[in-house]
Write a structure and sequence with these properties.
globular, 256 residues, Rossmann fold
């Protein structure tokens, strides 16, 4: 463990597995108290227990659906009851399914936008007033490299994730006076259960297989490759960094 986040408290959405779980564990190892939120009730509770045991930190988890504003209020209230304050919000919850845009339907659009964009709006709307009142806070929003360059089969997802980028920059401007920093991480392809689900379908397998050939580091990321940047951006060490968008993708895209 290190003490980079000693005395801090955090909320992480989509924290039962994949990138969210890795970030929650890294925050706890850095000394933060962490409240995990996830749609999967049993998984989020077991993830919290498994993270707490080796870190010895204050880690809890509750079932919470980012598409429901009232659930984000419950998640906020649970964190406040547990820790007394919220210093860090990591909006990680996300979902996608690869298919050509003309084969998608309104139900798909609604689900992608609700989870990937509205979920971020809900969590920020629930937590920002508390952070603004305290005149401090760090928000780390997990977007996607598809938001920066587009991605085959991910038209609506890429659009929703691009909206997260613009939304985050605007919040960074609006709340700079409150000493609240807002930054964005854009992962490339990451070995997660969601990626496994995507690759079960033929279209997804073809797309993922072709992309691997263009990654200079010749592998997909692991969730643990994303987590250290989230810890850094959440910490006081990044105290002069806000409104930034940073890719973690093995060199697949090099945006300057």
């Amino acid at each position: 463990m290190n003490s980079l986040l000693e005395g801090k408290s955090a909320i992480v959405t989509g924290a039962a597995r994949g990138i969210g779980r890795a970030i929650a564990e890294a925050l706890a190892r850095a000394g933060a108290g962490v409240m995990l939120g996830d749609l999967r009730a049993a998984d989020v509770r077991s993830a919290a227990a498994e993270i707490q045991q080796p870190t010895g930190g204050r880690v809890s988890g509750i079932a919470a659906d980012v598409t429901r504003l009232e659930d984000m209020h419950r998640l906020r209230d649970a964190a406040l009851e547990e820790f007394g304050k919220i210093d860090i919000l990591v909006n990680n919850a996300g979902w996608d399914r690869l298919m050509p845009f003309v084969k998608t339907a309104p139900e798909h659009w609604d689900r992608v936008i609700a989870i990937n964009f509205r979920g971020v709006i809900h969590a920020c709307h629930a937590v920002l007033p508390h952070m603004a009142e305290r005149k401090q806070g760090s928000i780390v929003n997990i977007s996607s490299d598809s938001a920066r360059v587009g991605s085959l089969g991910e038209s609506v997802y890429a659009g929703a994730k691009a909206a997260v980028v613009a939304f985050s920059k605007t919040l960074a401007r609006e709340h700079a006076r409150d000493q609240i920093r807002v930054n964005v991480i854009c992962p490339g392809l990451v070995e997660t259960p969601l990626l496994e689900e995507i690759q079960r379908e033929e279209f997804g397998r073809k797309i993922m297989g072709s992309i691997l050939n263009f990654i200079p580091l010749k592998r997909f990321a692991l969730p643990q490759d994303i987590a250290p940047l989230a810890v850094f951006l959440a910490s006081d060490a990044a105290g002069y960094i806000t409104g930034q968008v940073i890719s973690v993708n093995g060199g697949l895209t090099m945006v300057g």
